């Protein structure tokens, strides 16, 4: 084994082999894969090998499409067959809700270039005669589904990588990893040590253990998973290979395996495997069968597909594979560790392995994954993903693999875990809570405790009239919102402003002022949006998205100079309350001594104040677009601040409002938000943030790319539409049509209660952005006329917030 390599990839499952291949393809030849046993010795060898393009995150779906298209390429390079069978697949809906869900998936597929088709039960039965029609309401057909041979795929990647210059060492376990001061690694293996510039943890079932070698606890857990293969079935003899099928109500998937059928299930009572430590001596082993556990699914399966019940069971496979809490992969560099990368938690290696390898290799070689991989970025998780939390969420995710997640559905596992000091007080006001990074935050307020529950739906739900009331309160009087779930960072030091000026596209505000700013990567794409508040010369208080805290800190740390400036995440140290509406100033004025008149404290001011007995920061800004204030206090004061505002607010008609009302109101104002309107696939001018890019202030990351975008106009435009919707509003990811063609996609949507219209924000080609007519938005399979608005739907000139 060589003693030095540019990269050591740990693990020769399908994911490690794909990473290795993609690194050679990207031009890095001095790459070594170290495998503790033989290739495929983790979850890969006993996988069912199924692959499909559908994913809840459109960006992950694109990488799945890439993976499936890649098999031809690696077969050609390596001469190794991947055993690809493209059979096509059908997803069977047993209920109207499921059919709605399929229609939404089909619609999303349109702008991803997928050719999905909604078909009737009769058409489905023609394609998949094993089904008993009476259990189904409709189906979706996908021509690009099928299965591969897991051994063949892994070896095709491995051979292609070796042809590209990579080396593979088998039967050599990595037992330790030691960081050198220069950021490189000593990889200690059973066959000797390798000095590597970079290490990739692709250790699959053992990724947690490899993470622990460098002091991190990755949020992944293996679950036992069973499938069975029936005896040969006369119904299949001499016929074309059967389609893949998913029966959502039965929670089972099916495909042909030689003369019989393979049937797998994601049962409700899933069982974790090795919840704390994965044994090193587990190899190409199977776990004992437990048919009793999957009996409820099998019963439904045999009822829905009667021929399978008569075919007998030839073989049962029970094997473990890993999941992250949300079921998507974990990839990318780890904050705080130099040159240490992960590619693990990949639960669908044969749909996602290629995309994971592509994104990670680009990230390593070019410094950027080259695609929007936020949904797979390891940095989407933070400190809250303890072992027990991960266990609860992974079990929940596994059990819901084939369940519908409604847009207003909040999952219940591991809750409540994190709460703010006013949690019980908000509960007493009948708040319905959402879970955001394991932190409870109010979504809406019901009139009574009995009504404080979401009835899940794709259409306007039971919260609609209550959210309407909250929006009217903000429009006509004053509303109070808990905003503790924002991300917060303190940037301090004599070099703070200069450093931040280089990190952010906008000018750092003067002392006592606030400025909004995009953060760009070197390609000039949006990687964050922040509110910069400057309490003093050497102190800037940054407010951004809490879910992206680790993602931001990883970027900040990478660009911090050795001295003169420090950045500290402090989201949970500061709790926040926002008051918004025409009476907000009078209310706040009644409890502070500072003059809040516009002349003394204009829009976008920021100042330390005493609010009653509570010391805090007050910013004159509101995400609802009204006259409003955001108040930040250390968490120990939040209860007192809340009580003070509620008491003083009685006179002004103060009522609480929640995240749903906020979402509706920010859409009325065309204010975008991270992970919806602002993502690394959009530039600031496309996203309508051009006015916050200051080319006069000097250099900043992404400046030249942003200047190019400005000159060229960018390819896309974020547009607000007024939609002629009936009982369901857009929520995000719906296609936007223009003159009969799909031209764009919705990023957010809601009913705008202040303006009384259904609204949607979305991207369309820049060339169409000025078109006045011809737009439609497809909501649950129905196209609705959409009028493009030239400004925000509510208070387009921003007079209210400046008043
Ligand atoms: C029953 C079952 C059915 C499945 N069906 C499908 C399906 O139909 N479609 C699909 O896409 N996916 C399916 N999967 C999931 C699929 O198997 C995984 O997505 C995939 O195998 C993950 O691959 P990996 O490379 O990340 O991990 P693994 O396959 O676990 O590979 C990790 C490798 O790293 C090696 N390793 C670990 N630690 C070290 C170390 N310290 N030093 C050296 N080497 C190390 C291991 O020996 C192993 O070879 C199924 C899984 C199971 C169990």
Question: Overview of this structure, please?
Answer:
This protein is α+β, with helices and mostly antiparallel strands. It is built from 19 helices and 39 strands. The strands form seven sheets. Strands 5, 6, 7, 13, 14, 15, 16, 17 and 18 form a nine-stranded mixed β-sheet that branches. Strands 1, 2, 9, 10, 11, 12, 19 and 20 form an eight-stranded mixed β-sheet that branches. A six-stranded mixed β-sheet has the order 30-31-32-29-23-33. Helix 1 (14-25) runs parallel beside helix 5 (150-163). It is globular, with a radius of gyration of 27 Å. 53% of the residues are buried. The mean pLDDT is 96. Bound molecules: flavin-adenine dinucleotide. Residues 10-16, 34-37, 41-44, 46-51, 173-174, 202-206, 210, 225, 227, 317, 319-321, 344, 346-351 line the site of flavin-adenine dinucleotide (FAD).
Span between termini: 71 Å
* Overall pLDDT: 96
What is the SS-derived class?
Answer: alpha+beta
Q: What share of residues is helical?
A: 25-40%
CA-based shape = globular
Quick tags:
binds flavin-adenine dinucleotide, alpha+beta, eight-stranded mixed β-sheet, 19 helices, 803 residues, nine-stranded mixed β-sheet, globular
């Amino acid at each position: 084994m060589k003693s030095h390599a540019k990269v050591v990839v740990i693990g020769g499952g399908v994911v490690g082999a794909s990473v290795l291949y993609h690194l050679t393809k990207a031009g890095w030849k001095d790459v070594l894969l170290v495998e503790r046993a033989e290739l495929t010795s983790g979850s890969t060898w006993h996988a069912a090998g199924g692959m499909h393009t559908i994913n809840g995150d459109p960006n992950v779906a694109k990488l799945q499409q890439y993976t499936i298209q890649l098999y031809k390429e690696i077969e050609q390079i390596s001469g190794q067959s991947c055993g690809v069978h493209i059979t096509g697949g059908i997803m069977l809906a047993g209920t109207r809700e499921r059919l709605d869900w399929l229609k939404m998936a089909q619609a999303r597929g349109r702008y991803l270039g997928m050719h999905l088709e909604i078909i009737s039960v009769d058409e489905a039965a023609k394609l998949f005669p094993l089904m008993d029609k009476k259990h189904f309401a409709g189906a979706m057909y996908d021509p690009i589904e099928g299965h591969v041979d897991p051994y063949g795929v892994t070896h095709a990647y491995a051979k292609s990588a070796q042809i590209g210059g990579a080396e593979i060492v088998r039967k050599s376990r990595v037992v330790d990893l030691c960081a050198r001061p220069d950021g490189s690694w000593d990889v200690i293996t059973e066959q000797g040590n390798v000095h590597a510039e970079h290490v990739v943890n692709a250790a699959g079932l053992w990724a947690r253990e490899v993470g622990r070698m460098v002091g991190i606890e990755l949020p992944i857990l293996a679950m036992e998973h069973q499938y069975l293969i029936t005896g040969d079935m006369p119904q299949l003899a001499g016929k074309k290979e059967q389609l893949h099928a998913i029966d959502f109500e039965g929670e089972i998937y099916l495909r042909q395996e030689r003369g019989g059928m393979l049937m797998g299930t994601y049962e409700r009572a899933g069982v974790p495997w090795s919840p704390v430590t994965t044994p090193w001596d587990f190899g190409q082993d199977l776990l004992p069968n437990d048919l009793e556990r999957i009996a409820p699914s099998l019963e439904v399966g045999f009822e829905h597909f009667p021929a399978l019940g008569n075919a007998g069971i030839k073989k049962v496979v029970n094997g473990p594979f890993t999941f992250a809490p949300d079921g998507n992969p974990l990839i990318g560099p780890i904050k705080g560790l130099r040159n240490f990368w992960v590619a693990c938690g990949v639960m669908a290696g044969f749909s996602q392995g290629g995309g994971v390898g592509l994104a990670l290799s680009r990230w390593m070689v070019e410094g950027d994954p080259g695609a929007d991989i936020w949904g797979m970025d390891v940095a989407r998780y933070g400190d809250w993903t303890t072992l027990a939390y991960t266990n609860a969420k992974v079990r929940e995710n596994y059990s819901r693999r084939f369940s519908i997640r409604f847009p207003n559905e909040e999952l219940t596992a591991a809750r409540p875990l994190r709460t703010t000091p006013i949690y019980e007080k908000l509960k007493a006001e009948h708040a319905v809570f959402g879970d955001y990074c394991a932190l409870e935050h109010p979504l809406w307020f019901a009139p009574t405790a009995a009504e404080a529950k979401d009835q899940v739906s794709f259409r306007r739900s039971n919260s609609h009239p209550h959210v309407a009331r909250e929006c009217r309160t903000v429009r006509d009087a004053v509303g109070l919102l808990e905003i503790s779930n924002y991300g917060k960072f303190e940037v301090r030091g004599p070099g703070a402003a200069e450093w931040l000026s280089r990190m952010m596209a906008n000018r750092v505000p003067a002392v006592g002022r606030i400025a909004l700013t995009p953060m760009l990567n070197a390609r000039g794409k949006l990687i964050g949006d922040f509110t910069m508040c400057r309490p003093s010369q050497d102190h800037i208080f940054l407010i951004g998205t809490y879910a992206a805290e680790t993602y931001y800190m990883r970027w900040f740390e990478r660009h911090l100079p050795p001295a003169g400036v420090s950045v500290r995440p402090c989201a949970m140290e500061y709790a926040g309350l926002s008051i918004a509406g025409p009476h907000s100033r009078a209310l706040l004025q009644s409890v502070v001594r500072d003059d809040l008149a516009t002349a003394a404290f204009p829009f976008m001011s920021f100042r330390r104040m005493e609010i009653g007995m509570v010391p805090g920061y007050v910013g004159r800004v509101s995400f609802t677009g009204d006259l409003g204030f955001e108040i930040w206090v250390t968490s120990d004061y939040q209860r007192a601040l809340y009580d003070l505002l509620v008491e003083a607010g009685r006179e002004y008609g103060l009522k609480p409002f929640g995240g749903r009302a906020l979402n509706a109101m920010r859409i009325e104002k065309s204010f975008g938000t991270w992970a919806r309107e602002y993502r690394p696939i959009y530039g600031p001018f496309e996203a309508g943030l051009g006015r916050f890019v200051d080319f006069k202030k000097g250099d900043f990351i992404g400046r030249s790319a942003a200047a190019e975008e400005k000159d060229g106009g960018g390819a896309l435009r974020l547009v607000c539409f007024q939609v002629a919707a009936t009982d369901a509003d857009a929520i995000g990811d719906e296609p936007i049509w223009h003159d009969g063609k799909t031209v764009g996609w919705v990023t957010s949507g809601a009913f705008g209660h202040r303006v009384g219209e259904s609204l949607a924000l979305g991207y369309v080609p820049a060339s169409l952005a000025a078109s006045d007519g011809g737009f439609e938005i497809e909501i649950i399979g129905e196209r609705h006329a959409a009028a493009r608005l030239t400004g925000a739907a509510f208070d387009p000139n921003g007079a209210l917030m400046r008043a």
